[in-house]
Amino acid sequence: MNKISVLFGFLMIFFAILAFSETVVTVGVFSWDVPIFQQIAEEFEKENPDIKIEIVEIPWTPGDIINSLLTAKAASGEKFPDVIAQSWEPIVYPVSQGWVYPLDEFIKNDPDYNYVPESIQNAFKFLGKTYALGERLHFNTIVLNLDLLEKLNLPVPSYDWDINTFMYLARRATNREYSGIDNLWEFDAYMAAVFSDRTTFWSFDFNKKRFDLINGGWLKAVEIQEKLRKIPGLDASMLFNQQLRDQGELDDYQKKFGEDTDAFFEGKILMGFKGTWDWDEEGLKSLPWKMDMYPLPHDHEIGMRQPIHINYAFMTSTTKHPKEAFKFLKYITYDPKGVVVKFKYVTSVTDAIGNSFWFVPATMHPEVVKEFKEAKFIPNGVKYMLENLDKTVQVDMWKVIPGWFQAINDVMIPTEEKIRSGDAEPTAIAAETEEKLNEIIEQAWNEFIKQVEEVQKNFSKLRKKIESEK
C-alpha cells in the first residue's frame, strides 16, 4: 500500500467520523424565506461546524400556517421541526398542546438576553416559563408627509412628540384641498396602550389579564378620536361612501380629492395611521414624496410608550437536540452576530424596482443597533424607535391571550359601532362592556392555564422519553 492510499484512507476515516459526530437540527421556514435562511444556516455552520442545519420548507396555506402544520404532524405522528423560525399566530394553542419547549434553562444568565427589552422578554411567558423569543418586530407608526408639511408652512415635530402636537398638525393641515390623516380606525385601540402605563391594546391589563376600559387609556383615546372626527374633512376615510359609489355618484372623498385618486399616495393627506408592515404591503417604500415614520404621539404625563407587534420563534418540545437547536434559535433572534447576519441577507433582497426589504430586530444590542442605523433605506424615525425599544408595549394580544378574538368580535367591535353611530356614549357603556369582555377572557384563560399546568407537569416525563430514544 503506497503513501497516497494510506493518506486517502485516513481522510475517509476522518470525514466519516466528522459526519457521524455532526448534529442535525431541522428548522421550519416559510417557503418565501427559504433562500435567506439557507444563507443564514451556512453562516451559522461556519461558526458551529458540529451542527448541521436542515431547512424544512413550510408552504403557504390559508389561515394559521404554523399551527395547522403542527396539528397535522401531531395527528399523523410525523416529527416536528426542531425550530420554528417565525410565526405571528396565536402561540397559546401549541403551548396548550405541549408542543413548545420552555427556554428558561438556556436564557438564564445569558448576558446577550439582557439587551432584549422586558416587553419582549415577558411577551410569551406562561406560569413563569418562557415559550418563545421575539424574532422581529413591527411598530404602529404615523407616516408624515414632510413635503406637505413644508408646503403648508408647518413645523417639523420631534420624534418625542405628544398628542397635542399631533392634533395641532392634523387640524392645521385640514382644508378644502388637504386632510390631516388618512384614517383613525382603531386609533382608540392602539392609543389606549399609549395613554396608560398599565394597559395595552383596547385597555387590556396584561398583568391582570383583564380589560380596564374605565381606568385604562381607552376612554381618553375614544374622546380624542371622536374630537378629531368631528372636524370636517380631517379624517379622510370618513369622506368615503361606498353606497354612493355603487349608485354611480361621487362621494365627498372623490369631490375633494378627485374621482380616481389615492389621496394619501398622491400627497394630499399630511399623515397616515400605518404600521411598519405597510412598508411592503401598502407600498410606503414607493411613495413619491419625502416621508418619515414617527412613533405614536405620547401623553405628556405618561411619557413614550411605543406599541409593538412581536413575531416570534420557538423550539418544539420533541427535539432530540435541545442545546444545539437553541443555539440556532438564539442565532436568529437575539444573538448579535446572528441577527446582524440575518439583517445582511434580508436587506440584500430587493423588489422589482430595487428597494431593499428589512425588518426590525428584537434586541437593543449595540452591534445590532449600529447595523440598523447605518441602513440608508430605513426611515430615520424607525431607527429612533429601535433605539427606544425599552419604551415599548406589546399590543398583539391575540397571540398570547386565549379568547381574544371572541371578546373583540362579539363585544368590542359592536360597542365601537354604537359609539361611532352616536347610539351610545363611551362613558355610559364602558362598565357593561368591560364586564362582558372579562367574562369571556376569564373563562378562556382559566381553561388555558389548566392545560398549561398539565403540560408543565408532564414535560420532564416527555423529555426523559425523548432522551431515551436517542
Automatic annotation (TrEMBL):
Record key words, sorted: Cell membrane, Lipoprotein, Membrane, Palmitate, Signal
InterPro entries (UniProt xref): Bact_solute-bd_prot1, SBP
Entry annotated with the keyword Cell membrane: yes
SUPFAM superfamilies, per database record: Periplasmic binding protein-like II (SSF53850)
Domain of life: Bacteria
Name by which UniProt lists this protein: Bacterial extracellular solute-binding protein, putative
Native source organism of the sequence: Thermosipho africanus (strain TCF52B)
